[in-house]
Amino acid sequence: MALRALDNTMPAAVEERPKKVAKVAAPPVAAAAVKAASPGSGKKQKKKNDENSAPRATAAAGEQAVEYIPSEELEAAAHPKAKAAGLVAELDSKDWIRACEALNDARRLAIHHSALLNPILEKVMLAIVKTMKSPRSAVLKTSIMACTDIFNNFGNLLSSVSDDAFDKLLLQLLLKASQDKRFVCEEAEKAMRAMAASMPPLPLLKKLKAYVHHANLRVRAKAAVAISHCAARMNIEAMKEFGMSVLLQVAAELLNDRLPEAREAARSVVASVHGAFAKEAAAKGKEEEEDAPDVAASWESLCSLSLPPISAQAVAKIAASSQ
């Protein structure tokens, strides 16, 4: 093994390692500026607020500025013919404030100038259906209010518009009445009550029957309530024309619905049918001097012929408790 020579020379100086320099954190503003300037970030930078610029009006503030005028406070239009001529185009406006104004004009024409609205009623209804799909709460509520005024002033609406136009309107009302937004739901329910009270019950009942099997249970419930309103207004002749067995079958199906609102409406339908049936049977009994128990037997016979045994018993029980 080789030995290092012993002498007085110092070993070669070892190169000193560089000292670590403390990192200084960049101020937040500078860091943000660097991040904004860095290429490939891919994110859009938000505009800085300018304290000298006027604040922009938000959509919520605009909707609060829209006034919901009750029907009794709507005055006649200043120029009704001109309003009627441009109504459909105004209802189709992309400016939602103008659309709200046009909806109120439609309400004015329905209340005070129905003769001018009648020739264009179908086009107006289709335009209203379109506004009922608006995401703006103000447009949505005003459009439903317009439906209420049209129902109240055009009782036999089905004679003035096509089945397609009315079907689209009815579907939107049922959907809006089934919403979670309370103010929308309440306004739609009000419109449906006006519809059931003003339109002939038989043709309306035929339209509502299709929604008993709707996939949305809330839509079924709202349709059931409207059916109960129609049944309450029908006499025995109208029920027979619709089919008393069919009406009992509708009620029996709704009795098994998941929502209490639908089940309660079904009980109301059964009570209306039984009331009309008993009234006719009592009138015949007086003419033919029959006894009252025959009325109950005839009712049970109708139920057993129209419904399965379990449903017939349930319907008969409801009729007995309503007496």
TrEMBL record:
List, alphabetically, the InterPro entries matched.
ARM-like, ARM-type_fold, CLASP_N_dom, TOG
The segment(s) forming the TOG domain are: 67-309
Q: Where is the composition biased (Low complexity)?
A: 33-42
Q: Where are the residues of the annotated region Disordered?
A: 1-21, 33-62
Pfam families tied to this protein: CLASP_N
Domain of life the protein comes from: Eukaryota
Protein name, entry field: TOG domain-containing protein
The organism is: Urochloa decumbens
